[in-house]
Backbone:
C-alpha cells in the first residue's frame, strides 16, 4: 500500500487527483482480496475445507471473514461467502450489507451470488474465476448452465404443485401489518 502511495505521480505533482484516490482504493481492494486468498490457502493447509475464503469490508475495515466449511460442518450451504455474510450481519446486527464490499477468493457460485444479491452489498470482487474452479472439479458452471434451461429440462426433477394453497401465505404477507420488509 505504502509503496504505491510513495510512487504515486499525483502526489509527486502535489495534486491529489481522482486518479490518485482511485489508485488508493484499488490498492486497498487488493489488500482485502489478499486476506480472502490467505483464508482460502489456510483452509486447505489446515484441512478444514475447500479452497475458498471471503471477507466483508465496511468503512475500509474487515468486519467479517468466512471460509468454506461444507465438510467440516456437514453443511452444503457453508460456502465462504455465505459464512462471511452471516458473520457480517451478526457483527452489524442487520440483515442487509448496504455500504459493504465483499471480497471472495473465487467467483461466487449461483447460491452465493444469490445470497450476495439478497445481502445487498455495494460491491463484489473475486480472484479465481468459475472456470478456474471447474478445472479443479468445483463445477459451479454446471449449475449456471442448469439455470438457463427450462425447468422441465433440468437434471433436478422440479414440478410446480399446489400453487393456489401456497399463495395463502403471500396473501397474508401482502396484508400483514407486522411484516418487516426487505
Ligand atoms: Zn458458493
Residues:
Amino acid at each position: 500500500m505504502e509503496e504505491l502511495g510513495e510512487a504515486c505521480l499525483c502526489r509527486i505533482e502535489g495534486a491529489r487527483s481522482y486518479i490518485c484516490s482511485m489508485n488508493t482504493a484499488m490498492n486497498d481492494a487488493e489488500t482485502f482480496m489478499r486476506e480472502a486468498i490467505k483464508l482460502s490457502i489456510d483452509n486447505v493447509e489446515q484441512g478444514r475445507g475447500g479452497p475458498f475464503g471471503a471477507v466483508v469490508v465496511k468503512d475500509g475495515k474487515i468486519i467479517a471473514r468466512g471460509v468454506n466449511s461444507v465438510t467440516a460442518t456437514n453443511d452444503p450451504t457453508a460456502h465462504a461467502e455465505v459464512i462471511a455474510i452471516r458473520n457480517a450481519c451478526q457483527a452489524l446486527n442487520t440483515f442487509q450489507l448496504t455500504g459493504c464490499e465483499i471480497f471472495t477468493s473465487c467467483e461466487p457460485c449461483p447460491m452465493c451470488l444469490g445470497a450476495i444479491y439478497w445481502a445487498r452489498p455495494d460491491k463484489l470482487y473475486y480472484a479465481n474465476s468459475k472456470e478456474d474452479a471447474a478445472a479443479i472439479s468445483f463445477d459451479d458452471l454446471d449449475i449456471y448452465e442448469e439455470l438457463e434451461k427450462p425447468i422441465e429440462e433440468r437434471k433436478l426433477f422440479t414440478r410446480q404443485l399446489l400453487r393456489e394453497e401456497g399463495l395463502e401465505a403471500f396473501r397474508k404477507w401482502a396484508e400483514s401489518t407486522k411484516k418487516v420488509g426487505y
